[in-house]
Amino acid sequence: MEHADPFLQVQADVLSTLQSSRPLFSSYLRIRSLTKNPSNPELKQARSELESTISELSADLDDLVESVRAIEQDPYRFGLELEEVQRRRKLVDDVGAEVEKMREELQAAVSHAPEPDLPNPTEFDAALDEEERGGDDYYASMEQQRQSELMHEQDEQLDGVFRTVGNLRQQANDMGRELEDQAVMIDEVDTLADRVGGKLTNGMTRIRHIVRKNEDTWSSFCIAALIFALVLLLILVIVL
């Protein structure tokens, strides 16, 4: 069974973190646009949360970049097609551009925002919602691609399972045939044992018959001997 591609695991983490960072980024932009004080507690908290998320996202993104650089040198060595390498390169480029945009907004001072032309919060939210929807479409596309790759991996794993089951079935058939052969041999042994047992029984019957005949012969001989002895004694008594 094949191991999961580490790139796909990190990719899932990056996309998940990116998805959670977008609402934080939108919230930060909204708060910054509504305040003139850089020390605003709400702004500080939003900035801190966004910086922490971007830091985590950047670390995972660096791993993806290094992975793409490695496989670009010899993709076939890693069992990848050129289309997959290009997809991974585009992914890290797009995510990197989005992260860089967040960093630039973090570096911009609150005072740089033009006060007279502040948009209506409702319009700003609508624009951000549209941007988020675009990001959601991108994420949905990436997620669909990831699901397709996972399904392909699962198909390969199922093929491996089917091959293993086929081998087990072949072994079971071989064992069944061997057991059938052994059953035939056991039947032959039982038949032979029955024949030998019958012969032994006949032999014992004959031996017992012979013994009984011998016993009868000796009994008759002893009786005859006793009669002869009695007759002899009577003759001797009469004569004497």
TrEMBL record:
It is found in: Golgi apparatus membrane. It comes from the Eukaryota. InterPro entries: SNARE (IPR010989), Syntaxin-6/10/61_N (IPR015260), T_SNARE_dom (IPR000727), Tlg1p-like_N (IPR048036). Keywords: Coiled coil, Golgi apparatus, Membrane, Protein transport, Transmembrane, Transmembrane helix, Transport. The keyword Membrane applies. It is a single-pass type IV membrane protein. Residues 148-210 form the T-SNARE coiled-coil homology domain. GO terms for biological process: Golgi vesicle transport; protein transport. GO terms for cellular component: Golgi membrane. Residues 40-74 form a coiled coil. It holds the Pfam family STX6_10_61_N. The keyword Transport applies. Belongs to the syntaxin family. This is t-SNARE affecting a late Golgi compartment protein 1. It comes from Penicillium cinerascens.
